[in-house]
Amino acid sequence: MRLYFKIFLLFLITELVMGAMAIFFIEGLYIKTFNIVGHLTITVLSMPISFIDRSYPFYAPVPPYQAILLLMLNVAIHAGIAVFIIKTTKKNKS
């Protein structure tokens, strides 16, 4: 459980920073390459939520409490997948 919380916090901070940088690249710069990188980053970060419902990436225009909930759900899914992969690879090595 401690591993899950460590990964959850790491992913939460990483996704917040990457999301902010992606939005900066999309909104602040008008260079086509950076715009493409920003859109791809946001698409990858919101992938688990978009599998559940296509209209709900974490940056969707929803009330702030719902956006925070979607972000937390997205990070929880990412952390769960990462813990599963880590535990599976540790079992396979031994």
Distance between the termini: 21 Å
Shape estimate:
globular
* Largest sheet composition: none
* Poorly predicted runs of 5 or more residues: none
**Helical content band:** over 70%
The string of secondary-structure elements, in order, is HHHH
Mean pLDDT: 77
What share of the residues does DSSP label as strand, in percent?
Answer: under 5%
Tally of DSSP β-strands:
0
Structural class computed from helices and strand pairing: mainly alpha
What Rg do the Cα atoms give? 15 Å
Report on the architecture of this protein:
The longest helix is centred in the last third of the chain and has 30 residues, at 64-93. α1 (2-28) packs antiparallel against α2 (32-45) and α1 (2-28) packs across α4 (64-93). It contains four helices and no strands. The mean pLDDT is 77. The two termini are 21 Å apart. The protein has helices spanning 2-28, 32-45, 47-52, 64-93. It has 94 residues and is mainly alpha-helical.
Question: What key phrases describe this protein's structure?
Answer:
0% strand; mainly alpha; 94 residues; 4 helices; single chain
Describe the structure in brief.
The chain is built from 4 helices and no strands. It has helices at residues 2-28, 32-45, 47-52, 64-93.
Q: What is the strand and helix layout of this fold?
A:
Blueprint: H1 2-28, H2 32-45, H3 47-52, H4 64-93
Helix pairs in contact: 1-2, 1-4
